[in-house]
Amino acid sequence: MIREKDKQLLSHIYRGKKIARRYMVTNGFDGTLTMLGMMTGFYVSGTKELGVAINACLGAAVALFVSGFSSAYLSEKAERQEELRKLEQALLIDLEDSHYGDASRYLPLLIASVNGLSPLSLSLIIVAPLFLAHHGILLPWSPFLVAIAVALICIFLLGVYLGKISRQFWLWAGLRTVFIALILVATILMFDI
User: Fold this and answer.
1) How many angstroms separate the CA atoms of 56 and 64, rounded?
2) pLDDT at 84
3) What are the sequence ranges of the domains in the chain?
4) Using one digit for the tens of pLDDT, what is the confidence trace for 112-123?
5) How many Cβ atoms from other residues are within 10 Å of residue 155's Cβ?
6) What mean pLDDT is predicted for residues 67-83?
7) Which of 28, 65, 72, 162 can bridge 118 by disulfide, Cβ–Cβ 3.0-4.6 Å?
8) Count of CB atoms situated within 10 Å of the CB of 130
9) What is the spatial distance between Cα 128 and Cα 154, in angstroms, rounded to a whole number?
10) CA distance 90 to 88
11) Which residues cross the membrane (predicted)?
12) Rounded distance between C-alpha atoms, residue 62 and residue 68, angstroms
């Protein structure tokens, strides 16, 4: 049975759902476009060493995780502390041991985890074709082309999700994000020397 204090804590954390969702989409989009850019760059450069490409992509994915986690934690922690301080001043009481104080400590961790894990998980999905090809599994096209297709699917699904949130037509919302990704690919191809 959930105690009243736990219910109030969960209620405060639930209110952070929209913030976490925004971070998930924003940093997930960053991670997906980063991997798409890397895959396009590897493909146009004619890279044959899958091990080198996998290590470079994993390095970028880990960096995206650390960056996303730490930046969200630091900024959300500062925001929550400021809100708690203002509420304490208005109420003239110490809220450190209250459910509001607990939420001020846990919510930044939750949001930071979402912000760090979304680009990491999407990056691992996009890099998966390189892993498969590196371990001898035959793919219908170059592993980089398959990874580019996977990245475009991920971006399309992020757009569909945004369309669902904003109650727009899902296909249009998905195609809009794919269009942004195609601009990225075209820009990289334009600078290929």
Assistant:
1) 12
2) 82
3) 1-191
4) 999 999 999 999
5) 26
6) 90
7) 28
8) 22
9) 13
10) 5
11) 21-44, 50-75, 109-132, 144-162, 169-191
12) 10
